[in-house]
Amino acid sequence: MKSLLIINAGSSSLKFAVFNLPLTQDAPSVYRGQIDGIGANTQFVAKDLDGKVLLETTIKSPDGASLEDQQQLALEKLLVWIEDQHIELAAVGHRVLHGGKKYSAPVVISPEVLAVLETFVPLGPLHQPHNLRPVYALAKKYPSLPQVACFDTAFHRTQPWQSEVYPIPRKFTEEGVIRYGFHGSSYDYISRQLESVLGKQIGNGGVVIAHMGNGASMAALREKKCVATSMGFTAAEGLMMGTRTGNIDPGVLLYLMDKHGYTAEDLTRFIYKESGLLGVSGISQDMRTLEASDKPEAREALELFCYRAARQIGSLMVATAGLDALVFTGGIGENSQFVRNRVCELMAWAGVKLDPELNKIRGKALCIQAADSKVAVAVIPTNEEWMIAHHTTTLLGLN
Ligand code: ADP
Fold first, then answer.
1. 332 lines ligand 1 (CB under 6 A)
2. Which residues, at least 6 apart from 28, have a Cβ–Cβ distance to it below 8 Å?
3. Helices in the chain by DSSP H: which ranges?
4. Is 26 a catalytic residue?
5. Which SS3 state, helix, strand or coil, does residue 203 take?
6. Catalytic one among 152, 258, 266, 355?
7. Most CB atoms within 10 A, among 119, 129, 134, 388?
8. First to last CA, the chain
């Protein structure tokens, strides 16, 4: 039997999933796992279909190995494990951060495509080089194995220019400083579930999807196409997140530079790692920990998270010209009764009303609005790996 390997490679982690061919609708991955802590204490965990741990081991790097060498070693360990399972790979699908303005759909990777993807490194220096590294390694080891890139940005290329352009001097816009948006594979997947969960008419109407995990964003859809999204040039804009600020006055950053001598590195840490739920609560970035805490700082972090989410929905409702449905997904969106309830309370002015019983759902697709709600509300679990597997099989004609 032939299989697909799906890779989501970051700087310090590599997540993977293996799907068997032919790939059916919503087929589960037969194996999945991750390699975490690359560059420090590298841990490799692989699980089977039922979530049973098949392997849990530490990967030891030679002393003085560079981060790049350690990433390479992690991938090699994964490939050896795959061979040990007698998995015959037909293709590999990669999650790639940036497709720039050029790619509005997944693409089969060739040396020419790879050269274009390299030119997007300045747009996503924290992710793009790490996303591409396994592509090179696989091409070297298995030159005839087809590889496909699925971009976080691609889904948002249907945005009208007003959603995409910043009010900055034109030369920077032309250089590519625009609002790309991210979490595209998740929105792509959810957009394909809208009709079956919400019905044809509402599914094609004005829909705001809230993808809330450690990273969080929203997308506004009409006719299942993106018309606006909360993330912009980078994945720092928009919603308050686990450790990221989301929208912030750039004047705050100037103040930190002036008053506290913050360097670019300090600001990067402030924006991406020290803020959000973690920064406000001073306790944790994890929603479950905060929900379980009775500390006032935890309550404040939760309230701010929900308030800013509702403010963002209000803004996206301009782009959709009215709201027919609100969809929750991602670890928080799929599981947190509290967040869904509070966000919907804050949207009551727009006719959003939840059914408290239905809102108890976790991790399953369901409409959860009250009978007298003017807006449909749904939980739809996302499946980014399956989406990448689907594009990989379709582009390569493997099914
Ligand atoms: P990532 O963006 O890393 O893929 P996930 O989509 O897995 O993140 O979401 C992680 C977030 O989901 C964490 O904040 C976690 O606390 C939250 N979460 C997971 N399960 C629950 C739950 N039962 N209740 C509330 N929050 C949850």
1. yes
2. 49
3. 67-84, 111-118, 128-141, 161-164, 170-175, 184-198, 200-203, 250-260, 264-272, 276-281, 287-292, 296-320, 330-335, 337-346, 384-396
4. no
5. helix
6. 152
7. 388
8. 12
Using alpha carbons only, what angle is made at residue 251 by residues 248 and 254, rounded to the nearest 5 degrees? 115
All domains of the chain in start order, with CATH: 2-159 (3.30.420.40), 198-379 (3.30.420.40)
Reduce the DSSP state of residue 39 to 3 states and report it. coil
Q: Is residue 93 lining ligand 1, measured as CB closer than 6 Å?
A: no
Predicted pLDDT of residue 351: 98
Cα 106 to Cα 104: distance, rounded to the nearest angstrom = 7
- The 8-class DSSP code of residue 63 comes to T
The pLDDT score that the predictor gives to residue 11 is 86
Torsion of CA 237, 242, 245, 246, to 10 degrees: 20
Among candidates 227, 205, 157, which has minimal Cα distance to 327?
Answer: 205
Q: Ligand 1: distance of its center to the CA of 215 in Å?
A: 10
The answer, yes or no, to whether any atom of ligand 1 lies below 6 A from the CB of 381, is: no
Query: How far does residue 210's CA lie from ligand 1's centre (Å)?
Result: 13
pLDDT given for residue 61 in this prediction: 85
Q: Is the CB of 287 under 6 A from ligand 1?
A: yes
Q: What is the number of alpha carbons within 13 Å of residue 161 lying toward its C-beta? A: 5
Predicted TM-score of the model (pTM): 0.96
For residue 314, the number of C-alpha atoms closer than 13 Å in the C-beta half-sphere is 13
Strands 14-20 and 225-229: unpaired
State the distance from the centre of ligand 1 to the C-alpha of 212, rounded, in angstroms.
Answer: 8
Which mutation among 332, 379, 387 tests ligand 1's pocket best, with the greatest number of atoms within 8 A of CB? Answer: 332
pLDDT of residue 220: 98
CA dist 236 and 247 (Å) reads 7
Which among 311, 101, 96 is positioned nearest to 208, based on CA atoms? 311
Q: Which residues does 157 contact at the CB level (< 8 Å), separation at least 6?
A: 99, 101, 103, 104, 226
Taking 50 as the pLDDT cut, the residues of the chain under it are none
What distance in angstroms lies between residue 150's CA and the mean position of ligand 1's atoms?
Answer: 23
Q: Which two tokens stand for residue 47?
A: 């699980």
Kindly state the helix (H) or strand (E) to which residue 56 belongs, with its residue range. strand 53-59
Widest CA span of the chain, in angstroms?
64
